[in-house]
Here is the input.
Amino acid sequence: QVQLVESGGGLFQAGGSLRLSCAASGSFITINSMGWYRQAPGKQRELVAEVLPGNKLDYVDSVKGRFTISRDNAKNTVDLQMNSLKSEDTAVYYCNAYLYYRDYQGRLSYLEVWGQGTLVTVSS
Here is the structure.
């Protein structure tokens, strides 16, 4: 079983910074991509940033220049450095990963995994 465990959420001031961390654990072969999504109250979940194969980085326009995603392949972790926080960054942030694993029959399988979410509240 694979788990993603997030940390780093809380209450922050506008203009401030925080760092979210996510660690993958369990039985898997390799992680294809890792990223961060968020869901604000009354809104749909949206992609914030992701690290794709080949270390290609992708960001939603609203966070470009303020957020930086980084991945440590050896530790199976992904971090999101969030600077110049705005009230509109308030949301539950979810870690996401696509990975390969062996199922109970030994077949190579592909799986999407989500973390439990961590709340980030930015006060203005």
Remarks:
- The chain has a mean pLDDT of 96.
- The radius of gyration is 15 Å.
- The chain is about 0% helix and 60% strand.
